[in-house]
């Protein structure tokens, strides 16, 4: 996407001369000593290879050719062990952050519509130790309410710190966490809750008053509703026998429980951690059964693609935690000592819909280094940037466009532009807090033009990846120094990918110049199957002669010579929930 400019030719020559002088004086030494040379070399390296020379052979990352990675830390083969390891290592470090609400008010628009506006304060933080204690108490409190190991419990809630605390409690006590999107319709929610036969729902006061209140009579097994906020409330509309608790009261029960009641059955790697319901884009939503070892393998592969991940990183969480991408991203951060500050699409930026004019959005306050986004959010960011550009003077606007096109040319060659970054794009970068170093894009395919726009204006890697709920979100992710567009990267170190002939469409793994076919993902991240749907499970999942489990994605791809995958065909009525995203080892420990 090259921007057009209308600038005086003499001025254009002068600006080009300044850029040339700057390059000679500063860029060449910077190029030699900064590592840019090595990054360019890495971008040209082969990233994945087939395991043998036979047609249709599986491709693996060059970092896991002989052994697929499956655990983050030796001995941490379940999610409760991963969190306990992180708690021990990062005990007093900040983990989960929430902004305090200073003021709420109604703003009447000229049309007569009333919009809710908020003024938010600083982030308040819970340490790793704080979160661990709250999760232990909550899990014990659920046991007091009658929750048994290996039974289902639902969470129907917006993304927030309490969501993660509740999830960790369930992982510790081996409760199977049923996740449902807060945006699902009533019929889909009822289907998921009744199919999993839950007796307890964890939710927010707002969702209880809006969605649950209308459908609670259709969930006959329901006995407990736990709100993560607010005071205990009863509703005359609720059926008799349904009790409403607060999360704080359940935690208080757990803290007071005797030592015997605290001895919960711990999970084993093959136990189900999450039953994740998809959005139901092709009919009623299906519950994907994801085990502890599935999730751990997935986040092992994801984290390997994020260089220098650690205590200095801050992740902003605002996408639905009921989506495998957001859940995986937050678990990656939690296991590496990162901070997670919570937000929402309505309070994300200074221009977001619920932020009162003149107040600061969450990214401005938090200044995250890691962020995930979906195309819809990126479109809003693009619109905000271009509105700012259009408000510039003619000279400023043409200078921005010139710098944009110059940087686009340099990026395509693998180079960076420190002068443009510091002088031209600094203010644009501040729209996301100014410190983003990796931007992960998920939820849908990302166009090359949008990817390049974000690369240029926010001065950070923006790549793509490919995964599904059925593969625990893991499949491929581009490396941070790979600035090509239109591809989804090489297989992660936790899995292998092969292409199966699809004769009806004319795609064969013997095609030239690139092998093509239906994408199959194999590895420990491939999930158990669909809840109470053995027929569909048998159709979409197979096990080969070596005992490797494979997911038939229904998508068509091709492998390029460097081992990177490109999606070239729409999925074949698979009905799966695709997670395409952008920018973690026992089995084979790569630590």
Automatic annotation (TrEMBL):
UniProt-listed PROSITE patterns: AMP_BINDING
A GO cellular component annotated for this chain's UniProt record is: plasma membrane
The UniProt record lists the keyword Transmembrane: yes
List the transmembrane segments. 12-33
- Xref: InterPro entries: AMP-binding_CS, AMP-dep_synth/lig_dom, ANL_N_sf
Q: Name one GO biological process term.
A: long-chain fatty-acyl-CoA metabolic process
Q: Which UniProt keywords apply?
A: Fatty acid metabolism, Ligase, Lipid metabolism, Membrane, Transmembrane, Transmembrane helix
* One MF term in the entry's GO annotations: long-chain fatty acid-CoA ligase activity
According to the entry, every stretch annotated as the AMP-dependent synthetase/ligase domain falls at: 118-531
**Pfam families noted in UniProt:** AMP-binding (PF00501)
What highest taxon heads this organism's lineage? Eukaryota
Q: What is its EC number?
A: 6.2.1.3
In terms of PANTHER family, this protein maps to:
FATTY ACID COA LIGASE ACSL3 (PTHR43272:SF13), LONG-CHAIN-FATTY-ACID--COA LIGASE (PTHR43272)
* Protein name as catalogued: long-chain-fatty-acid--CoA ligase
Q: Which organism is it from?
A: Meleagris gallopavo
């Amino acid at each position: 996407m090259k921007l057009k400019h209308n600038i005086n030719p003499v001025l254009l020559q002068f600006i080009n001369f300044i850029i040339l002088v700057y390059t000679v004086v500063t860029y060449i030494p910077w190029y030699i000593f900064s590592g840019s040379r090595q990054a360019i070399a890495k971008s040209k390296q082969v990233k994945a290879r087939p395991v043998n020379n036979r047609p249709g052979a599986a491709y693996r990352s060059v970092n896991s050719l002989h052994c697929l990675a499956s655990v983050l830390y030796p001995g941490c083969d379940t999610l409760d062990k991963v969190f306990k390891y992180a708690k021990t290592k990062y005990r007093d470090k900040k983990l989960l952050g929430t902004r305090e609400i200073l003021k709420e008010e109604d703003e009447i628009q000229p049309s007569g519509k009333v919009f809710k506006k908020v003024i938010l304060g600083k982030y308040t933080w819970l340490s790793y130790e704080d979160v661990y204690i709250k999760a232990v108490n909550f899990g014990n409190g659920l046991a007091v309410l009658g929750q048994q190991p290996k039974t289902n419990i639902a969470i129907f809630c917006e993304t927030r710190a309490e969501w993660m605390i509740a999830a960790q409690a369930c992982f510790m006590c081996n409760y199977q966490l049923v996740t449902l999107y807060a945006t699902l319709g009533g019929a889909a929610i009822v289907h998921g809750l009744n199919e999993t036969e839950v007796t307890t729902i964890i939710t927010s006061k707002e969702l209880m008053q809006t969605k649950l209140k209308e459908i609670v009579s259709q969930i006959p097994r329901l006995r407990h509703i736990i709100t993560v906020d607010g005071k205990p409330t009863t509703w005359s509309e609720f059926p008799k026998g349904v009790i409403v608790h607060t999360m704080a009261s359940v935690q208080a029960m757990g803290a007071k429980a005797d030592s015997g009641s605290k001895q919960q059955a711990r999970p084993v790697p093959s136990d189900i951690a999450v039953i994740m319901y998809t959005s139901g884009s092709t009919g009623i939503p299906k519950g994907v059964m994801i085990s502890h070892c599935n999730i751990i393998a997935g986040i092992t592969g994801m984290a390997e693609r994020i260089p220098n991940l650690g205590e200095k990183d801050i992740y902003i969480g605002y996408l639905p935690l009921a989506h495998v991408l957001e859940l995986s991203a937050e678990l990656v951060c939690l296991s590496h000592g990162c901070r997670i500050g919570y937000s929402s699409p309505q309070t994300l930026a200074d221009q977001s819909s619920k932020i009162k004019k003149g107040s600061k959005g969450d990214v401005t306050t938090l200044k995250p280094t890691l962020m995930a986004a979906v195309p819809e959010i990126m479109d809003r960011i693009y619109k905000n940037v271009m509105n700012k550009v259009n408000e510039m003077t003619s000279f400023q606007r043409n200078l921005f466009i010139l710098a944009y096109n110059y940087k686009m040319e340099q990026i395509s060659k693998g180079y960076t532009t420190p002068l443009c970054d510091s002088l031209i794009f600094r203010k644009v970068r501040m729209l996301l807090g100014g410190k983003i170093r990796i931007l992960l894009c998920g939820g849908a395919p990302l166009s090359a033009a949008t990817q390049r726009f974000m690369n240029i204006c926010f001065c950070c890697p923006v790549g793509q990846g490919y995964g599904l709920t059925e593969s625990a979100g893991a499949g491929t992710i581009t490396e941070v120094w790979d600035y090509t567009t239109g591809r989804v990267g090489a297989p992660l170190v936790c899995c292998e990918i092969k292409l199966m002939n699809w004769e009806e469409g004319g795609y064969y793994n013997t095609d030239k110049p690139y092998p093509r076919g239906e994408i199959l993902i194999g590895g420990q991240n491939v999930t158990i199957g669909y809840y109470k749907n053995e027929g569909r499970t048998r159709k979409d999942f197979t096990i080969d002669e070596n005992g490797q489990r494979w997911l038939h994605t229904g998508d068509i791809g091709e492998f390029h010579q460097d081992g990177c995958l490109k999606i070239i065909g729409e999925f074949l009525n698979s009905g799966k929930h695709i997670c395409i995203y952008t920018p973690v080892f026992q089995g084979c420990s790569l630590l």
